[in-house]
What does this fold into?
Amino acid sequence: MIDGQIRQILKEHARLAIDLAALDDAADLYQAGMTSHASVNVMLALEGNFDVEFPDRMLKRKVFESVDSIRQALSELMAN
Amino acid sequence: MTNAKISPFVAIARSIGAEVAGVHATAVDRDARFPSESIKALKEHRMLSAYVPKSLGGGGATLGELVLACEALSQHCTSTAMIFAMHQIQVISILRHASDSPWFLEYIRDLVANQNLIASVTSEVGVGGEMRSSVCGLQWEGQSFKLIKHATTISYGAQADDLLVTSRCTPDGPASDQVLSLVRKADYTLEQQGVWDTMGMRGTCSPPFKLTATGKKDQVISTPFAAIASETMVPVSHLLWAGCWLGIAGAAVNKARAFVRMQGRARPGSIPPTALRLAEVASELHMLRASVDSVLREYEYLIAAEGGSADELSSMPYALKINNLKVAGSRKLPEIVSQALLICGIMGYKNDSKFSMSRHLRDAHSGALMVGNDRILATNSSMLLVLKDE
It folds into this structure.
């Protein structure tokens, strides 16, 4: 379920150059055309949707580079 | 600092600055011509490979030494200093991201032997000044590529030996999925598309060009440009530019100091009113230097750290910090030069006076425009929507 929500947010905010449905969970979103600016909108939407705050230590490229890495970060935050 | 041993690179930069760059600076500025004498001198002293490790035949300079060398050159001719800075940014990007490639290792040896001057081709018509976006893409045929790029500006493009160019990986790829390729002089042509007649930084000779280049797969750095930009190109650019800015500010404040001392000597026993302004501007310069030093120290610490540093360098808190250096420094610089001009008064305003501030002030204004501060502030404001604490 969480994957569905992540994908919905990416669909609305990541502004990918290619169809998100064609990407698997490990695919690099930056290589798929997500800009730094778009990634901020993705972060804001994720924070709003999941009612979490990404601490500054998580605000790095690696954390938002794929559906997998986003899920992992959210799971870590929601477990606390 | 007074007791510290002066770096040989800084000593060379000082002497080339005073004996060569400074001698030709007025003509370079007046005629908007390339400072060929000082670049030749830098090549003769093997300064174009200063940062290359000794194991590869280079000088083994640190980034801190290059910042000081930029400052020393810029005190005499900021166009020379900026060309030196831009070349070093290219060399450092190659060394940090492509030195595991046999082709690039061979290139570095060639650079050490021949002191090739590398220019950067990151600007492009149609991207609105955004370095992290490309319109052009590498057109592949087997292992070879062809690239056509309409650059809005290439500093010393006509005088460079080689070019480091951003583009999409392929013509149809996403605009932000970029790579960096090195193209050799024999394999490219540049058609100049306009003139370079600007307020300042006139000797950098940075008109628009149409670039047509060919190359092989080996000439494309395998690390994505996104990582090269955030880990190396942006922080190193901001630090070396800041070195150039310190040189302008230092030259302007030195003139103001000489002027106030002259007034002091004319009437011993009374402090000239300009001395108060001088005390103010000296503290502003001190603050600028301190902010450059602190960012430099942190960057050198991070790149020296084993593992994990790439992660830190590509993080938002770090990007904000390195952008703040650029925005705050380039804002402060023209203020300092203007203050120095007020101190020298009409003697600073006159072009034929030894206190003339004209070139310093005109060069100083480039800082806020060369990668526009508004663009950087827009990036920072977007990051501040998710960044939390200081």
Observations:
- The two ends of chain A are 19 Å apart (CA to CA).
